[in-house]
Design a protein that fits this description.
The complex is a heterodimer.
Chain A lengths: L8 H6 L1 H9 L7 E3 L2 E2 L1 H8 L3 H10 L7 E3 L1 H9 L8 E5 L10 H14 L4 E5 L3 H13 L2 E9 L7 H12 L3 E6 L4 H12 L2 E2 L5 H22 L5 E5 L4 H12 L6 E7 L22 H9 L19 E5 L1 H15 L9 H10 L7 E4 L11 H10 L3 E5 L9 E5 L8 E2 L2 H16 L6 H10 L4 H11 L1
Parallel strand pairs in A: 4-12, 5-6, 5-8, 6-7, 9-10, 9-12, 10-11, 13-14
Antiparallel strand pairs in A: 1-2, 3-4, 11-15
Helix pairs in contact in A: 4-10, 6-7, 6-10, 7-8, 10-11, 13-14, 17-18
Chain B lengths: L3 E2 L3 E9 L10 H4 L3 E9 L3 E2 L4 E5 L5 E9 L12 H4 L1 H13 L3
Antiparallel strand pairs in B: 1-4, 2-3, 2-6, 3-5, 5-6
Classes of the chains: A alpha/beta, B alpha+beta.
Chain lengths: 471, 104
Amino acid sequence: MSNKPDLSYRGVMARKNEIMKQAVGLDYGQFELGGLAFDYEAMMGQAAYSLEEVRQIQAETGVGETPLLELRNLARLARLSAPPGKGARIFVKDEACNPSGSFKARRASVSCYQAAKLGYPGVIAATSGNYGAAVASQAAMRGLACIIVQELYDSRGLSQPEIMEKGRACEAYGAEVVQLSVGPELFYHFLVLLEETGYFNASLYTPFGIAGIETLGFETAEQARRLTGRDPAAVLITHAGGGNVTGTARGLLKAGCLDTAVIGASVDLSGLHMASDRDFNRKSFTTGHTGFGVPFATWPDRVDVPRNAARPLRYLDRYVTVTQGEVFYMTELLAQLEGLERGPAGNTSLAAAFAVARELDRDEILVVQETEYTGAGKHPSAQLSFARTQGVAVRRGNPVENKPGEAIVIPEHPGQVAVQELALEGLKRSYLKKARADKNGAPLSPVEKRYLAAELNSTEQYVEGYFREES
Amino acid sequence: MTQASKGDWIQIFKVILEPGERAPGLPPETAAVPLTMKVKGFLVEDSAAPGDTVTIRTVTGRTVLGELIAVNPLYEIDFGRPQPELLEIGVEARRLLKKEAAPR
């Protein structure tokens, strides 16, 4: 018999908890309350850092304090198709000014600080998004080795241009980039690498990652008050894994923005399967879409840590979707009318904001809380050129004709940019359905009832009602 | 494709999981193909040709074994072609704003 660990899929997955515990340096067991429940606030309070500490950590590596810019021309354009007296002022937090070009630097900063403090030799993150470059950049500043694991290409070897660019950026910051074909077993290989290297798991979903985003919400509130003398009526947040919503909302609450509506926005990719080798290259957005937004909201603990610190249903007041074509349209308008070449994926919430602004009064403040850098591969012209080679039609028309994977329809007029509501009620019921399956007929304890109510930003009566109704 | 010499920056390919070893519950088109990996690093052997099984040392110092598929691979990303569907958006929007600003 050899002493080598069993590296088969089953063998590694069976050691998951052990590997994770080593790789995060955090005993999640201390926060468990029995059954479904765990003490979320204790986890955020004890494991992570205070807002003031996070600000200091981020100042050390040049993260945050990004400008809040007013988009006057876009607001004027929105008012042309708004009812009389409507059309809020629109501001954008220019997160592309962070060291690695996106808000993800905030998320990576605390993890890399923690990894260095605990003496880990390096960090690993599993991501095909901007988070890879963020971790690589922060790791470089903290003197840590870095490995980024990407899902990059299909079985034909064809790659999403946006992910190729993100891989290039990681290499530019000195990271090793491990590139995989399509499939959720990326997580399996990620575990193999954690075990092999003993590096820190710079997961997107630790308390460190989420605490890092709280400063984004806090700064947004401070800057909006300084520039306009009032709190934002709404903050629009691109929603995928839930961290952006959770961290920003917590930061807004810490700043005392109790009446600010937290609105999540995702690109509608309904009909495309996220684990499909065929669908993989038929989408033009690799994040910020419903393929992540819905499952991560309805069951947050499906991630690479035992308990996810990103819990969006606790914070969302509203969740809307926009189409790929509308986001490309707004990306073009942002460059042409406001002189900001950004995105496109980071402009998902901007497209939603353009529509939501028409619902609000003219003196109200609406904040889009991120931009991201653009470049070769990421840019709309690169994305649309690639989409055409994959048989996706690109044309002008009414955005309601968008069909994910088949047609990208660019609006003909700003008045056509609209949001579709994705009812939170449906997501909450989906969450409870999973919880009910996990209980497998056993009754909920009082602690679990309280926990589920908090998870859904609802009441114990609501939770009880669902369980009664479904039994 | 060119030969590689010791220390050259190369890319290797490796099958991580054969179709039968993959996770349960995958869509059929994904389950039917292997999970594969590409990694770049410096060639450890004295020389090698595409198709050879080689060792690399990655930038983090790991050694990984796999099939040599590219020597100093190109970053195949660009800005694509200007898109006709996007070219007029700015012109249209400026026209709308100008019309709004004009005295009635």
